[in-house]
Amino acid sequence: MLTATVGWILQIQVVITIIIFLWSYDRYAKRWSTALGRYSVEGAYTRVDYIAGEGASYMVSYGYTVDGKRYFGAINRSILSMSLLLSIEENIEKLQKEYLTGRTVKVFYFKESPAEHWLDVPPSQLLVFFKAIGIPLLILILSNVPLLFIDYLIISSPYS
């Protein structure tokens, strides 16, 4: 019968932690060039729409091409950010003047996944850091919590 000891559980935790940190460093290193603005293309605004419903808003659509593949994005403007004294059509006209159809915009993207993108400025280094380590950190926490309970059960066992 395999008996677990506190040292054995600690070794598993250390190995899991090292693997997760190496994975998160790899994710961070790949995204670092995006934060420096190395990957960017020219995109263009395509249209302005009003989206009715419970969360009514105005949407400015744009498109860009990376390696021959077309991607699209949108800027959502809350209905409260626009003039409430103007009609929907007047607000759309105002946005169409601000975001002229066909006007170019610089799009910064993540090389591994061009659908992940930012307009006009590259993402902050802090945002890149949290996007890179967010999932690995969650996995680290979720994988170590059960091991902590096993550790507690071993220590509090009357047979130890």
Task: Please sum up the structure shown.
46% of the residues lie in helices and 29% in strands.
Structure description:
- With 160 residues, the chain is an alpha+beta fold.
- It folds into 2 domains: 1-36 and 122-160; 44-121, no CATH class.
- The chain contains 3 helices and 5 strands.
- A 5-stranded antiparallel sheet has the order 3-2-1-4-5.
- The radius of gyration is 25 Å and the shape is elongated.
- The two termini are 15 Å apart.
- The model has no long low-confidence stretch (mean pLDDT 82).
User: Could you tell me how far the N terminus lies from the C terminus, measured between alpha carbons in angstroms?
Assistant: 15 Å
Rg, alpha carbons: 25 Å
Helix content: 40-55%
Total helix count?
A: 3
The biggest beta sheet is recorded as: 5 strands, antiparallel
What is the element string, with H for helices and E for strands?
Answer: HEEEHEEH
| Gross morphology | elongated
Count of domain modules = 2
Task: Find the structural class using helix and strand composition.
Answer: alpha+beta
Major sheet: order of its strands? 3-2-1-4-5
Strand content: 25-35%
What's the total count of β strands? 5
Instruction: Let me know the average pLDDT.
Output: 82
Which runs of at least 5 residues are low in confidence (pLDDT < 50)? none
